[in-house]
Amino acid sequence: VPMSTPLPADVRIRVRNLTKRYRTPRGDVLALNNVSMTVNAGEKLVLLGPSGCGKTTLLRCVAGLEQPDEGEIEINGTVVFSSDRGILVPPEKRGVSMVFQSYALWPHMTVFDNVAFPLTNARVPKSDIRDRVRAALAMVGCAAFENRFPGQLSGGQQQRIALARAIVSNSGVILFDEPLSNVDAKVREQLRIELVSMQKKLGFSALYVTHDQTEATAVAHRIAVMNTGSVAQIGSPYEIYERPDSRYVADFVGATNEFPGTVVGRKDGLLLVDTVIGRLASRDAVDVDAGQPVVVLIRPENLHVTAEEEGLNVMGATLESTMFLGLFTEYVALVGDKRVILRSMRQELVREGGAIGIGVHPEHVRVFR
Ligand code: ATP
């Protein structure tokens, strides 16, 4: 690990070249492989990826609940861990709060005492504790519950209490480990909105773990997509969705049509690819040569039904099925014997079995090696 340079004032968390192996009887598991990232002041950085890709491990390393094998972690300008020097700041002194999927409230303590816990621990004067706990409970809409026990609350309410406990100490950095996974869909959506507005109001920085793409997009300023212990791509939700730089990221965030093809060449600034559904033109600047096998990805919402029968990126097809899904309608079309999925906010006036033209703009045709 290189010598650390001074941390810019607006960076709250920095991990550098973090590697973590778990030792098991059946050999080592490489949970983190040379991971680097920063979380800026007031930023919500979401770690997104499938089960087992190392999200929780990274969060636990930052919290100090797990010790990395290699690398360095800085929080609020202080190196809290480096592989040369070991643990320099223990978990309770790192100035971070954590919110878990399982709420992790003390069942034998009242709501008030649960929320007060970080303050009691830090020996904050009793009168301050009362005011701060009540303010935190009001913030999450649970002022009425201070004398109840966690067992007397719903899952959503318990998670609000856990949120109150995380914000009460004003730590400035909050780590979230799948905080909304245990509550039902309606409550999840509501809590997500409240969490976003609460973060705006309080301005804390967040490192937020989820495997849910919609949640990531809704919550994040930036998303770090992870793949088996490594960072596949970091960017704004828009960049991750519209400009995925690998098939892995494209597949993980949103639906895609995938067509294998062969590069024909370039013409008029467009890359031409012969695919199983015909010749497609792309605006991608990907570095490929004629004859090279590639995979073409097109998102269903970027395909449209057209009255034309031929032209650039227009293909004749047969409508196989139509499914009304509320927000959009999903159409399955057949180009030859290949299925193509389209999503449209409009009701297309085509009956199943009828002929349609489908088209896509070159900027929506993504080509991957
Ligand atoms: P999930 O969404 O399922 O929680 P995750 O992305 O958070 O997944 P981690 O929990 O960080 O992934 O796990 C990363 C890898 O390390 C996985 O292969 C996991 O099986 C392994 N692992 C995690 N904890 C341990 C442990 N205590 N001992 C051995 N292997 C572990």
What tags apply to this protein structure?
369 residues, alpha+beta, Rossmann fold, disordered N terminus, binds adenosine-5'-triphosphate
Residue ranges: pLDDT <50 for 5 or more in a row? 1-5
CATH superfamily of the largest domain: P-loop containing nucleotide triphosphate hydrolases
Bound molecules: adenosine-5'-triphosphate
Radius of gyration: 25 Å
**Helix-strand sequence:** EEEHEEEEHHHEHEHEEHHEEEEEEEEEE
Q: Which CATH architecture of the largest domain?
A: 3-Layer(aba) Sandwich
Number of distinct helices = 8
The average pLDDT value, as a whole number, equals 92
Main sheet?
6 strands, mixed
Strand order of the largest sheet: 7-8-9-3-10-11
Helix content: 10-25%
What percentage of the residues does DSSP assign to strands (E)? 35-45%
The CATH topology assignment of the largest domain is Rossmann fold
Summed up, the domain count is 2
- The geometry reads as elongated
Query: Terminal Cα separation, in Å?
Result: 32 Å
Number of strands: 21
